[in-house]
Write a structure and sequence with these properties.
- The protein is an alpha/beta fold and 362 residues long.
- The protein folds into two domains: 86 residues, Udp-n-acetylmuramoylalanyl-d-glutamate--2,6- Diaminopimelate Ligase, Chain: A, domain 1 (3-Layer(aba) Sandwich), CATH 3.40.1390; 210 residues, Hexapeptide repeat proteins (UDP N-Acetylglucosamine Acyltransferase, domain 1), CATH 2.160.10.
- It contains five helices and 40 strands.
- A twelve-stranded mixed sheet has the order 8-11-14-17-20-25-28-31-34-37-39-40. A ten-stranded parallel sheet has the order 9-12-15-18-21-26-29-32-35-38, with no helix packed on it.
- A hairpin with a 4-residue loop joins strand 39 and strand 40.
- The longest helix is centred in the last third of the chain and has 27 residues.
């Protein structure tokens, strides 16, 4: 098993000179307006030295407002300039007017606070199998293990304590935060981000009851993750029993999410915290699952479906519908039932009054 000495000690050390402090960039209002495809109302030469919420802004900061209430707070703050909508104006602040303030906010924040850079290199404590292929531009941090047949793409970052199982593929520019575990045969696309302590490819929950005990069904499939997926911390994606568990490109998964074996999640979907999806369920594209949604196994959820928080889904859902409740139902029906339930105490009082008026019952 080759050690990291191939790269030379200088390259090894360079790979671990990583800024641990938050670097804040500075821009003029004109530069920010150009980045955001916006226009400046006021002095376009003013230097912006930071980005902050209105109630925390200091002199020289840029702030953000997407409602009248927030704009009023921004005007009364110490900030030098405000990102706001196309119709906004101010007599006291520079305004950078944009089409979509919330999108502009995300772009500006990324510009002011770029992520730390991880230079190429392999830490001396990393263990890399002889048959593994690691691109020279990758960053392999302390105590990482890369097993047989693994392929690590260009500019991949393994921060520390990462384990990559046999025959797995990690695509270009993917970033694994500390202690992420990747089981064998997992395929991860490009620009994927997986946060600390998540597990990809663990055994699916498959058992058959046999003569008084639960016999384990071997889980021999894999996990396939598309490009530009992000998975939050402490989440788990089980590998397929035979085929693959699939997460479509662009999908974003929050912390503490459980995805069962052979689940298929369509492109650009959103799964919020504590969602649980049982085995072989299929979700379409652009779905939104709010916090603590549970989906039973083998169900089919259509494209552009939204499911309200804490809902328990027991039936297939057609394209474009909104469901909520336990058990989940179409939103209008569920809301009618919620309203009806709120009326039950008053109805019980009326029934008691009628019984009293009529002389009571047994």
């Amino acid at each position: 098993m080759p050690g990291p000495s191939k790269l030379g000690i200088e390259q090894i050390l360079r790979g671990f000179i990583v800024s641990r402090t938050i670097q804040v960039m500075t821009f003029t209002t004109a530069e920010i307006a150009k980045l955001l495809a916006g226009e400046v109302l006021g002095d376009a030469t003013v230097t912006l030295t930071g980005f902050a919420a209105a109630d925390q802004a200091k002199a020289g900061d840029l702030t953000f407002a997407d409602t009248a209430e927030y704009f009023a707070a921004a005007e009364s703050s110490a900030a030098a300039a405000i990102i706001a909508g196309k119709n906004s104006s101010s007599t006291t602040k520079i305004v950078i007017r944009v089409e979509n303030p919330r999108l502009a906010f995300a772009k500006a924040l990324a510009a002011f606070f770029p992520e730390p850079k991880f230079a190429a290199g392999i830490h001396p404590s990393a263990v890399i199998a002889a048959s593994a292929q690691v691109d020279p531009s990758a960053h392999i941090g302390p105590h990482c293990t890369i097993c047989e047949g693994v392929k690590i793409g260009a500019k991949v970052v393994l921060q520390s304590g990462n384990s990559i199982g046999d025959d797995s593929v990690v695509g270009d520019e993917t970033h694994l935060f500390p202690n992420v575990t990747i089981y064998p045969r997992t395929q991860i696309g490009r620009r994927v981000r997986i946060h600390a302590n998540s597990v990809i490819g663990s055994d699916g929950f498959g058992y058959v009851f046999d003569s008084g005990f639960h016999r384990k069904v071997p889980q021999i499939g894999k996990v396939v993750i598309g490009d530009d997926v992000e998975i939050g911390s402490n989440s788990s994606v089980d590998r397929g029993a035979l085929g693959s568990t699939v997460i479509g490109k662009g999908t974003k998964i929050d912390n503490l999410v459980q995805i069962g074996h052979n689940v298929e999640i369509g492109e650009y979907s959103i799964l919020c915290a504590q969602v649980g999806i049982a085995g072989s369920a299929k979700l379409g594209k652009y779905c939104v699952l709010a916090g603590q949604v549970g989906i039973a196994g083998h169900l089919k959820i259509g494209n552009q479906v939204t499911i309200g928080s804490k809902s328990g889904v027991m039936h297939n859902i057609p394209d474009g519908e909104k469901w909520l409740g336990i058990p989940a139902q179409p939103d209008r029906q569920a809301k009618r039932m919620m309203i009806a339930m709120q009326r039950v105490p008053d109805l019980l009082k009326k029934i008691a009054a009628w019984e009293k008026k009529l002389g009571g019952t047994e």
